[in-house]
TrEMBL record:
Keywords: Metal-binding, Oxidoreductase, Zinc. Its cofactor is Zn(2+). It comes from the Eukaryota. This is Enoyl reductase (ER) domain-containing protein. One of its GO terms (molecular function) is S-(hydroxymethyl)glutathione dehydrogenase [NAD(P)+] activity. Residues 40-161 form the Alcohol dehydrogenase-like N-terminal domain. Belongs to the zinc-containing alcohol dehydrogenase family. PANTHER family: ALCOHOL DEHYDROGENASE, ALCOHOL DEHYDROGENASE 8A-RELATED. Gene3D superfamilies: Medium-chain alcohol dehydrogenases, catalytic domain (3.90.180.10), NAD(P)-binding Rossmann-like Domain (3.40.50.720). One of its GO terms (cellular component) is cytosol.
Length: 377
């Protein structure tokens, strides 16, 4: 980044382009917004690339929370630090970074506990928006709002990454890939030689397949109702593909028969309560572990208690169990060391002006990841 430009803009309001969601269930609008300078403990980031994640769609189309608008969506991105506010010592202008929706203060009792990646609620990064548009305050989605040329994020929600990292690839580490991969490796703790089933083959599910393979699973059954996902799943390590629509019995029965009693590990990456139950019932009685990754707040879930009493373990996973500021740089390094696939997830390269097209691709299951170029590096 040009050092003179950094100096000139450091303490100023920046006018830039952003995709503003003015209300739910409506197309986003490319607008000129104002981005205020970072305040104490905040970092202003020039977003280079951002991807569309289903969580963006959930807020826009399913969450139906009118109080969450107007907003700028986006939370899976990478960029370059433009300026920092008072009290920020970890970052400096020119650093390559990934903003993260899950903060890590590194000081509260939860951050210091190796058993969780959660953060104490009172310590969560500030949610006050630095965006305005047409005289109105525009909310920052998940504290990040990366469908914008510039954004301001609390330093607890930013991870510094290797300067050699290609931002249009590693942006995926900011949510989906870490979420799925970590669900298998960190939360399920898949063991070598085990049998796994992954439900839902979007980016998160395919990353879970990749995590199962990295952990040494000998059999990985990919489950999806879209037959076009079969070949893609094999790229990431799946050994079998099962389409529930091809069978006249519950998918849990199909998998139980295929594996002589159920899989050792199942990972649900859909966000559907019926699929969550099916994933649990597909795991082996006595020791099976099932992990819920898919997000929904629309429905409660019901199960037969015997499925747990008989020895199964049911777990949830947020951001793949990674402590964000620690885990993200490691995932980026794994990619640079060719131990992690990222390029293979990207099916569409677009621009911020095409935000609505990218959203429609995701909404209609026509892409794995659409990455939008936002600003030049």
């Amino acid at each position: 980044m040009d050092e003179l430009k950094i100096f000139v803009t450091a303490f100023q309001v920046i006018k830039c382009k952003a995709a503003v969601a003015w209300e739910p269930n409506k197309p986003v609008v490319i607008e000129e917004i104002e981005v205020a300078p970072p305040q104490a403990n905040e970092v202003r980031i020039k977003i280079v690339a951002t991807a569309v994640c289903h969580s963006d769609l959930y807020h826009l189309f399913e969450g139906m929370n009118k109080d969450g608008f107007p907003t700028v969506l986006g939370h899976e991105a990478a960029g370059i630090v433009e300026s920092v506010g008072p009290g920020v010592t970890e970052f400096q202008p020119g650093d390559k970074v990934i903003p993260i929706f899950l903060s890590q203060c590194q000081e509260c009792h939860l951050c210091k506990n190796p058993k969780t990646n959660q953060i104490h609620q009172e310590t969560m990064s500030a949610v006050e928006s630095r965006f305005t548009c047409k005289g109105k305050r525009v909310l920052q989605f998940m504290g990040t709002s990366t469908f914008s040329e510039y954004t301001v994020v609390h330093q607890m929600a930013v991870a510094k990454i290797d300067p050699a990292a290609p931002l249009d690839k590693v942006c995926l580490v900011g949510c989906g890939i870490s979420t799925g991969y970590g669900a298998a490796v960190n939360t399920a703790k898949v063991e070598p030689g085990s049998t796994c089933a992954v439900f839902g083959l979007g980016a998160v599910g395919l990353a879970a397949v990749m995590g199962c393979k990295a952990a040494g699973a000998k059999r990985i059954i990919a489950v999806d109702i879209n037959p076009e996902k079969a070949e893609k799943a094999k790229v990431f390590g799946a050994t079998d593909f099962v389409n529930p629509k091809d069978h006249d019995k519950p998918i849990s029965e199909v998998l139980t028969e295929m594996t002589n009693g159920g899989v050792d590990y199942s990972v649900e990456c859909v966000g559907n309560v019926q699929v969550m139950r099916s994933a649990l019932e597909s795991s082996a009685q006595g020791w099976g572990v099932s992990v819920i990754v898919g997000w929904t707040t629309l429905h409660d879930i019901a199960i037969q208690p015997i499925h747990l009493i008989s020895g199964r373990t049911w777990k949830g996973s947020l951001f793949g169990g990674f402590k964000s500021k620690d885990g993200v740089p490691k995932m980026v390094k794994a990619y640079l060391d060719k131990k992690l696939k990222l390029d293979e997830f990207i099916t569409h390269n677009m621009t911020l002006d095409q935000a609505n097209d990218a959203i429609e691709l995701m909404k209609n299951c026509k892409c794995i990841r659409a990455v939008m170029s936002v600003s030049p590096q």
